[in-house]
Amino acid sequence: MINRIKSYFEIDQLQTTVKREILAGFTTFISMSYILFVNPTVLSASGMDKGAVFTATALSSALGCILMGVLAKYPIATAPALGINAFFSYSVVIGMGIPWQTALAGVFVASLIFILITIFKLRELIINAIPSNLKYAISSGIGLFIAFIGLQGGGLIVSNKSTVVGLGSLSVGTTWLTIFGLVITAILMVRRVPGGIFIGMFATVILGFITGLIKAPTGIVSAAPSLAPTFMQGVKHIGDINTVQLWVVVLTFLLVTFFDTAGTLVGLAQQAGFMKDNKMPRVGKALAADSTAMLAGSVLGTSPVGAFVESSAGIAVGGRSGLTAVTTGLLFIAGMFFSPLLSVVTTQVTAPALIIVGVLMAQSLTKIEWSKMEIAIPSFLIVIGMPLTYSISDGIALGFILYPITMIAAGRRKDIHPIMYGLFFIFLLFMWILNV
Description:
By secondary structure, the protein is mainly alpha-helical. The protein is built from 20 helices and 4 strands. The longest helix has 29 residues, at 244-272. The relative contact order is 0.21. It is a multi-pass membrane protein.
């Protein structure tokens, strides 16, 4: 059995081990398990049943991870994306006064379009057309973005009315828990200890128990909530998508998920060293996996599903094969029944891992041609735009809009791929839809 697994996932060719891949999958799951609790909380604001969304989140994430691992053989996990779930609840349902069932129908329609453009390889063509410099910028920008998420979640960075953000209070115990985890993880990484990120997270949990900053779980096993309140609601309300306003909502779901996922896939592929001649091998299968998960999620009852940036934690531990993603998927299934144990994985536990992974991904900055201003300007906007707008897709939009302008100004019109001109106009439309 082990030999078959090693053969299918090409464990030996990738110079990894089954043990390392499973550890990487576990690390990825621990890093992103918060979505099991955050997503139901955000979507319940729209009136959706919290328990049903919890189960839908777990199942759609598991399906996407397993498909990504088995079909595309990438160590990339999927789950309902943050940001777009807030758009679902607060902008569409609460802001526009649209019933959540209709909004879910919008996600379903967007996922069908997603699958169609994947089948016709439009998504693959777009990803392959992105210049290598911008791909390095995307990878680096994602690194800064997730490091910022870690710093914020761990309490080291907080909001500040005078300066927008500022240093968090060092009188807060949980902030010191983050600092402890960061120092331990940094030392382990410098010493090149295998599984250093995971060990750092485990050590942080133990210290949390000892100090009382992390409460011990009240139980171990619990039944998974019923899917009945949300299951098939989106499908049943497709007929409600009958106004221009609702089609704009569908288009927004499509565009945000498209570029969030594309950017995340490129960034993670760069981190893991999968890119070859500026192309991502098996990208079509990876895109098929996430689009299928998005469709399943809309049927089960959750906002759009896509590649999850926290996969970078598993990659940093050494995950290089689809076995990592499959492990994460199986843990999502188990997570439905062992949810009390997940309560120990606080933001202070995952924060150090995200910060260190940000350091690793930021190494792509060295590969950008900074001496050429036509490349440096759009690349910089991508890198700095992601953390400052708190959005992968918005950061990409800023850079992609400037790219053809700076290239034409430099007299390099012929070096611009035709698809990049198309993306220029798409992103202008994208920014207009989101900000008007």
